[in-house]
Amino acid sequence: MRLSASAVGTFLVLAATSTFQSAQAFTAVRGPLSTAATTSSAPSSPFLPTFSRVRQQASSSSSSTTSLSMSFSVGIVGATGAVGKEIRQCLEKREFPVSQLRIFGSERSAGKTMPTEKYGDIEVELFDVAKARECDVVFLAVSGDFALEHAEAICKGDDGAVVIDNSSAFRYKPEIPLVVPEINGKETKKSKLIANPNCTTAIGLMAIWPLIQKFGCKRVIMSTYQAASGAGQPGMDELQDGTRVYLEGGTPENSIFAYPLPFNVIPQIDKFQENGYTKEEMKVTWETRKICGLADDFPVSCSAVRIPTIRAHSEVIIMETEKPVDIKEAQKVLDEAPGVKLVDNPDELAYPMPITATGQYDVEVGRLRKSLVFGDYGIEFFVSGDQLLRGAALNAVLVGEEMVSNGSIKEKATA
After folding, report:
1. Start-end ranges of CATH 3.40.50.720 in the chain?
2. Which of 211, 256, 273, 312 is 20 to 30 Å from 264 by CA-CA measure?
3. How far apart are CA 397 and CA 409, in angstroms?
4. Quaternary structure per UniProt (predicted)?
5. In sequence order, what are the beta bridge partners of 222?
6. 127-155 pLDDT, tens per residue?
């Protein structure tokens, strides 16, 4: 029987919305850090068990950049979209060294004022390549077509800006670095144009890479459960609006997703390829190989599914390893890895979930166990990570921080 009570419908829609806006309230109590000087902990929640295995890492993805003494002119193209908004907020929260923040938009947005917490009210400028080139670094949170048309022109020459592109436009070009800073940050020294990886890849690799380093790897098999946020703000809006319509007895409409997403799962993200995989699934294969420096034929397989959650992607990952796996060693490796939060206490029902990963910089990893398929030479685990942060905006800002640190971003001389 379909629910029809408006009170129930309102509660469920608001609950979904709260996952997007206020996930901090659901974060379980964390145990103490191994660093004695660090005493902060997340707020507890009446909905989740208290457990000692979960902790916030003192890592590059949870620290600020206050040690950076220089400051830079920073531009954002696409700052009104879901990822663009998060880039701006990451710049503010992480204290990226910004001397001037410039927001570029379309004719529809130009002239409007965007309020910011740290930089005051900023007037949106009509995008122009020449204006963008005046910046020291430009973050692109726009379509691949836009990036292909303008990115190289923005960064061309010694007087061009560094460009960090969130689209897929340049990810597979051999000469363009595809970067997750904790894995291959040194690649940022090779180009003024840097590609940000696909959200699914970035989240999964935060756990995969430390395990590759410890145990080696022969193959990776991944199944993903991806939130509506993967389709940006329109995707999140379609899920919330459709959920409300369904609970009120109507039939949800769909324009963003192939089918209505409320109370459904859709085993398709992006277009199908000739080999039967979708492009989203192949992105994981292509990008994992490139970022980790693996062979072009290294076996990586992914099945990607869209699920009716607002924000944060989850993944089941299976690795066949070169060395025998000791689960306690694997837990230790992940517990110490930058950008990772180990959430792995089955006795207290502690494991990664979208509701606790939402709004968090670190990727949650748990459910670690030896693989029944690969035996001692295999490990299976579950991850959840915020698609808009670790899978997009945060990674882009971390790339910028890496380039400031290694001198790849330079202040332009002023007259």
Report:
1. 64-197+393-405
2. 273
3. 12
4. Homodimer.
5. 302, 317
6. 999 999 999 999 999 999 999 999 999 99
* Cβ proximity of 114 and 124 under 8 Å: yes
Beta carbons of 393 and 90 less than 8 angstroms apart: yes
Can you tell me which residue has the tokens 């939060």?
341
174-203 residue pLDDT tens? 999 999 999 999 999 999 999 999 999 999
How far is the C-alpha of 362 from the C-alpha of 23, rounded, in Å? Answer: 14
Counting every residue written for the chain, the total comes to 415
3-state secondary structure of 397: helix
Residue 294 and residue 218 in contact, taking contact as beta carbons nearer than 8 Å: no
| Strand runs labelled E in 17-78 | 72-77
DSSP character for 378?
A: E
Residues serving a catalytic function are 199, 313
Question: Please, which residues have CB within 8 angstroms of residue 161's CB and are 6 or more apart in sequence?
Answer: 75, 132, 133, 134, 135, 136, 137, 138, 154, 155, 192
State the first-to-last Cα distance of the chain, in angstroms, to the nearest integer.
71
**pLDDT tens for each residue of 106-119:** 999 899 999 999 99
Residues 62 and 90 sit within 8 Å (Cβ to Cβ): no
Q: Looking at domain 64-197+393-405, what is its CATH homologous superfamily? A: NAD(P)-binding Rossmann-like Domain (3.40.50.720)
Decide: 233 and 82 in contact? Cβ < 8 Å: yes
